Amino acid sequence: METWLVGYLALGAITGFFAGLLGIGGGGIMVPVLVVLLGAQGFGSEHLVHFALGTSMAAIVPTAIASTLAHNRRSAVHWQAVYQLTPGVLLGTFAATFIAAYLPAKPLALFFAVFMTAIAAYMIWGRAPRPERQLPSVSGMFGVGAGIGGVSALVAIGGGSLTVPFMIWCNQSPTRAIATSAALGIPIAAAGALGYVVNGWTQAEGPMTLGYVVWPAVLAMASMSFLTAPLGARLAHHLPVKRLKQVFALMMVGLAVKMVHGFW
């Protein structure tokens, strides 16, 4: 078996578990590792990050589905919030892929690292929300969804790094926030993957790619994430809130360091 295939299978298993545990699509884990794996396969440095972003987005779709199904079996998904956020998410995600396609690799990597570090700091030191705060109106949810989708497309995440803190800020329980984030990851990833296919149409590198999406990598990662996402979801419903936040924050910092180290 090819070494790169083993790497994709292992990456899929890990991201699937954390997708279920933390409500993330797994892009935060996939992107830095995909940069290394795709680079080792001979992908050019000029569009290496774009291929990592597009491939990650496509792989998040099945990962998010597996995670959502596992959480929904425990009736933890806030479906009304998902429905209200989705229109803005679709618009923001697809539009942002056009921005990301024209940005050089290093600024994208730096944006990724700063974003992850900021989220980690919020999860550790952020103040508790006011007790009276609730989810915003329909128009407000559209705007929040557009923001979540836009940032998600730029860093190829399923939106969990924004959706989970937002839901907790609106006084939703961490497990409900994680479950809802997993469900929202489906439209984010679908719109993002489509955008990276369209924007990378002329950059395809051989029969293994469609736009900025490397399909063998997507299929390998998805095959494993479908198995491990339910395991992470099960654990999320048993861990204490404080421990969940600590795991989330530490993962974000580690990924930020890895991404910066790969380009500087």
TrEMBL record:
<feature type="transmembrane region" description="Helical">
    <location>
        <begin position="6"/>
        <end position="39"/>
    </location>
</feature>
<feature type="transmembrane region" description="Helical">
    <location>
        <begin position="108"/>
        <end position="125"/>
    </location>
</feature>
<protein>
    <recommendedName>
        <fullName>Probable membrane transporter protein</fullName>
    </recommendedName>
</protein>
<feature type="transmembrane region" description="Helical">
    <location>
        <begin position="51"/>
        <end position="70"/>
    </location>
</feature>
<keyword id="KW-1003">Cell membrane</keyword>
<feature type="transmembrane region" description="Helical">
    <location>
        <begin position="210"/>
        <end position="232"/>
    </location>
</feature>
<feature type="transmembrane region" description="Helical">
    <location>
        <begin position="177"/>
        <end position="198"/>
    </location>
</feature>
<keyword id="KW-1133">Transmembrane helix</keyword>
<dbReference type="Pfam" id="PF01925">
    <property type="entry name" value="TauE"/>
</dbReference>
<feature type="transmembrane region" description="Helical">
    <location>
        <begin position="145"/>
        <end position="170"/>
    </location>
</feature>
<keyword id="KW-0472">Membrane</keyword>
<keyword id="KW-0812">Transmembrane</keyword>
<feature type="transmembrane region" description="Helical">
    <location>
        <begin position="82"/>
        <end position="103"/>
    </location>
</feature>
<dbReference type="InterPro" id="IPR002781">
    <property type="entry name" value="TM_pro_TauE-like"/>
</dbReference>
<comment type="similarity">
    <text>Belongs to the 4-toluene sulfonate uptake permease (TSUP) (TC 2.A.102) family.</text>
</comment>
